[in-house]
Task: inverse folding
């Protein structure tokens, strides 16, 4: 088997945060984008000067993956360092901040899963160390955020609101490349000629497909301009050179058989990272990276030991793990009103997929996706029997129970090798790896969502935390709580922002405190005397 070995890996894992001043860290997150469409990964359809310059100042990663092919489950992994299937955030979407009802047609309310004890939003640990944390603008973690995570989370959130010289972790999410923008921006001027786009072999060459692809390329041009503005701000403030900047997509591209699919098109994401001093600028790295690795890596870069409960690895910084990952895992379950359970893993040059419901087509009629002109065109051609074989495979039932692909020779996963005799040992091995992972990580996908909801909320409401207690010690105020899984947050009566409690408070007059935990109702507030 081929193992991904980078000649420069030892120099990659170089960043040590033993310096007195922790590094500033910025995430630039593009929604719904695959590396396929970016010039840094070989597509020369258009230029993205700002992103290309950022990539040339950093390291380009060629095997970065989301553990889910859709945003909310993927973001739950990013913010916790845990698999969505272990958290109960594997369905799209559980907590719905956008509307009062969630999926009434199938009886699924909006709820925050009760995650295992010790799971927290990792920016809490950064704030406890003195970081200013900001999120602009999307949250969408598949659970309601806790009060300790962000100093600011809003469309106006920015590092500029921090104290002077305070280290910061700033997240910027860019919706211009989202799936919905294919039909929204399709009404506007195209910035890329549809006749010049490359048609992936999973799509027919039709005017509708060409236009939607051109819209996506146009949206990438718009994204590049938006990211360029932020990079220029960093440079104007003298912050660019010594900051750590991540650019990545939150899962694969916005199209059918991309988003919501466990193929490479739905899981593989662009990722490049610029380190201080542009260390290893212009290089590439082929190691497997999963979203569950981002949280422990950020903590390690900040000099914080990642909590043991995190399932990911610290890939950089003080607590980096030297050994590369042999596997990356991914899952899909409910997409809006449609349910289909699948699991996948990458190993060496192989992809293994397990389908639990063979009678369900991959082309499930998810109503949100049905708004896309390309999807409507595909449906019409399929109904008329006019799709060529490689395109039609996505629609067919029954699906095979197992799929096996050699990604090196079949990057679009069109030739299923599960029945090839010479690869029988590989299939059995990967089947065993998958079965073991399902057990060891506590994959909740085998339990129906309604059963999980009943288990977490037996009284049809989220459990409520008890209030923390104060203990005055001389001139300081100690705050305690009996539940080891909670985070205690506090503020002064006149303040609006909650602080993470880490040690007794010296200025202890008129302190308000409460306990928070993912999936729980915040405790009643306690006010000191």
Result:
């Amino acid at each position: 088997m081929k193992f991904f070995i980078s000649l420069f890996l030892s120099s990659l894992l170089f960043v040590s945060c033993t310096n007195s001043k922790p590094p500033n860290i910025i995430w630039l997150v593009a929604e719904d984008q695959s590396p396929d469409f970016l010039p840094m990964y070989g597509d020369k359809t258009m230029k993205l000067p700002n992103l290309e310059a950022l990539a040339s100042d950093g390291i380009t990663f060629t095997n970065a993956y989301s553990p889910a092919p859709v945003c909310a489950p993927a973001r739950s992994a990013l913010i916790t360092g845990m698999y969505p299937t272990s958290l109960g955030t594997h369905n799209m979407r559980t907590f719905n901040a956008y509307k009062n009802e969630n999926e009434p047609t199938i009886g699924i309310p909006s709820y925050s899963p009760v995650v295992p004890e010790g799971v927290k939003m990792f920016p809490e640990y950064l704030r406890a160390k003195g970081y200013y944390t900001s999120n602009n603008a999307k949250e969408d973690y598949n659970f309601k955020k806790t009060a300790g995570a962000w100093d600011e989370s809003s469309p106006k959130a920015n590092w500029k609101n921090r104290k002077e010289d305070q280290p910061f972790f700033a997240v910027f999410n860019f919706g211009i490349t989202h799936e919905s923008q294919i039909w929204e921006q399709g009404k506007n001027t195209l910035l890329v000629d549809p006749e010049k786009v490359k048609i992936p072999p999973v799509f027919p060459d039709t005017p509708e497909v060409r236009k939607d692809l051109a819209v996506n390329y146009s949206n990438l041009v718009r994204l590049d301009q938006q990211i360029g503005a932020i990079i220029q701000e960093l440079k104007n403030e003298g912050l660019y050179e010594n900051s750590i900047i991540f650019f990545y997509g939150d899962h694969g591209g916005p199209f059918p058989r991309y988003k919501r699919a466990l193929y490479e098109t739905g899981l593989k994401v662009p990722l490049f990272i610029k380190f201080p001093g542009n260390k290893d600028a212009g290089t590439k790295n082929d190691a497997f990276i999963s979203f569950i690795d981002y949280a422990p890596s950020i903590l390690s870069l900040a000099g914080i030991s990642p909590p043991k409960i995190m399932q990911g690895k610290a890939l950089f910084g003080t607590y980096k793990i030297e050994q590369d990952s042999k596997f990356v895992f991914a899952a899909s379950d409910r997409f809006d009103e449609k349910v289909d359970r699948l699991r996948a893993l990458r190993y060496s040059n192989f992809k293994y997929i397990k389908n639990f419901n063979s009678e369900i087509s991959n082309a499930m009629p998810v109503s949100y996706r049905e708004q896309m002109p390309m999807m409507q065109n595909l449906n019409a051609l399929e109904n008329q029997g006019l799709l060529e074989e490689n395109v039609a495979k996505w629609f067919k039932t029954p699906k095979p129970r197992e799929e096996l692909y050699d990604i090196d020779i079949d990057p679009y996963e069109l030739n299923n090798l599960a029945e090839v005799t010479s690869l029988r040992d590989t299939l059995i091995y990967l089947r065993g790896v998958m079965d073991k992972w399902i057990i060891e990580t506590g994959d909740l996908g085998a339990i129906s969502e309604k059963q999980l909801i009943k288990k977490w909320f037996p009284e049809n409401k989220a459990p409520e935390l008890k209030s923390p207690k104060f203990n005055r010690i001389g001139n300081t105020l100690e705050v305690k709580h009996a539940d080891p899984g909670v985070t205690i947050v506090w503020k002064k009566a006149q303040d609006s922002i909650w602080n993470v409690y880490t040690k007794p408070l010296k200025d202890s007059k008129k302190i308000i405190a409460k306990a928070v935990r993912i999936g729980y109702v915040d405790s009643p507030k306690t006010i000191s005397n």
In short: The chain has three domains: 22-105+120-322, 330-456, 469-527. The first strand starts at residue 25 and ends at 30.
